[in-house]
Amino acid sequence: MKKLLLQATALIGMFAFTACDSDDKVTLPEGNETPANRCYIVNTGNWEGNDASIQYYSFETNMATAGDSEANIFAVQNKTLLGDLAQDLLWTKEKLFVSVSGSQKIEILDESGKRLQEPYIFAQEGASPRMMTTDGTNAYVTNYDGNVYVYNATTAAFEGKIPVGTRPEGISHCNGYLVVNNSGDLYAYNGTVSIIDLSRGDTRTINMVNPYTASVVCNEEVYIIDSGNYYDIPSAVYRISPEEGSVTSLGFSASAIAAYENTLYYVDNAWDYEKNGYVTTPLFALDVTTGEKREVLPEETMTNVNSLSVNPENGDIYVGYARYGVLGNMRIFDCNGKQKSFFGVGYYTAGARFRM
Predict the structure, then answer these.
(1) Are 131 and 179 in contact (CB under 8 A)?
(2) In whole angstroms, what is the distance from residue 306 CA to residue 194 CA?
(3) What is the rounded distance in angstroms from the CA atom of residue 220 to the CA atom of residue 36?
(4) What is the pTM of this model?
(5) How many helices and strands in the chain, by DSSP H and E?
(6) Which of 6, 166, 180, 258 has minimal Cβ neighbours within 10 Å of its Cβ?
């Protein structure tokens, strides 16, 4: 949790830039009816602000429900606030699993956002549920207590836990393997990656510096960001082949990545100590099979980027923007960079989540 506070403090400088204008912001729909064709937007909220929120965005109307804490779908359906620091949402088997790290809980909801049961609470010191993935049978949730918690994806019943490294964060499932980013001890930069063979039950460990939340599957391999030490060890994107246990650096830095089929999207909002400010790159698309790279969005559209997601059905790119202490925005682009929609989100959106 202290690492989160350190990074949130570092982000203040980035959020001081001018955000995207909101002249083309759509009118938010009224009422509680769940759109048939939709995705969910997860908003982390402010540190100790108790203002995490969930929205849904309709593909048919190009409109989203409100993103502030009191009007989000969880609050409307359950007459209470979601809590402090929502990290992730997993939509599978007609259920929503929502990890809320500051409130130390996992919520189990139906597709409208209504509670199906009492939340799983982690009262032990150091526990904090983080990121999630699924293999279709189970939901897997990383937790700062050093474990991956396993839940039945259909019933949400607790099935057990798998020990991994220190402060596990990002997680992906790829061809029967779990790949887990363990961010390591605070300030020690001794992170690791755990590769778990679900069929055999064994775990391999790879030493890294500071692998954080980013973990995506692209062309049947896993791509992660090692954030470095925020000073003289820069961030780097790595490709991990779970079956072989091999790790390859792609030779560039990134602050956010997302994947669609054979394409890896990435952008870098990095602090430059010589310039004493953030340097932002364009959004790039890398074909991981050919190595060809193209620019999708110019760097001026990447200022204040807080999240990057891609719709697995059509390749649309969801870019979340945030400024310190104010509600954010999200823009949706097609794969060629043409804007399709623009709407308001909550505080520090973690991105869009789609059915898995």
Answers:
(1) no
(2) 26
(3) 30
(4) 0.90
(5) 2, 30
(6) 6
